[in-house]
Write a structure and sequence with these properties.
Layout: H1 8-15, E1 34-40, E2 43-49, H2 60-76, E3 84-89, H3 97-110, E4 118-123, H4 130-144, H5 146-150, E5 154-157, H6 162-173, H7 182-189, H8 198-290
Parallel strand pairs: 3-4, 4-5
Antiparallel strand pairs: 1-2
Amino acid sequence: MGPTGAGKTTLVNKLSNANFKVGYGLESETQHIQTAQCHINGQQVLLIDTPGFDDTDKSDTDILNLIATHLANSYRAGCRLTGILYLHRITDNRVGGVSYKNMKIFEKLCGDSAMASVILCTTMWGQVPEHVGAQRERELAANFWRNMIAKGATMRRVLDSQESATQIVSSLVSLRRPVTLAVQSEIVDQGKSVLDTAAGRDLNREKEEARLRMEAEIERARQEAQRQMEEEQRRIQAQLEQQRLAHEAQLAREAEQRRIEEANRQAEMTRLQQHLATVQAQVHHHRRRNRGPCVVQ
């Protein structure tokens, strides 16, 4: 088991005569459970190749159901596992969310009692300097695989050779210790559905947390959009208010100007009327003074 591109199919091909398609592009190649036979130390060994939980086309729930159903059917048919290999690329410079999710689901699939039959394998050592790979190996052991190692799992390096792969599988075969995974017991012995198993609950928890994170992000985006919209409305309202006040001030100035002009006009008319009255009075007085006595002959 392991994430897409970790080298699971390549390992199976090296150990057997299988010629399963290996993915070198960005999309997953292993879409279904694949099995191949080989002989190690004179014993016939059945190798089971599984797709990763970061599959290109299938959801994590589909992958879990595929793997759990196959394991449960094998257990129900009396076919017991001898060991489990978990593969991880040593070329990964960090353990991201997808890789970490793969590890946690794998741990839940196996269960504590099966850890002694688990080998945690690091692959692609030829693509990194020794000291870089060794540092990442220590970090995996201390930070990500610590619980599984504490419960009996071991770590091994898968080198780019058939001999290396054979030695790792041989170490499990030599134990001659059948193992039952937690997911097999839960489905077959306890009658649980796949989603009710520890792995299924953990996967659902991951999905629920992802859903809640998405909803929280959507709510934050909505609130931010609402804040920006309200801020824009306030800005527009303030701008309109400024325009209204400016318009009212302009109207007031124009009204005042008209009032002043009207007052000036009234004053001018009064002055002219007064002047006219004065002139008329002077004319009347002049006429009376110049009027002589009337003589009748």
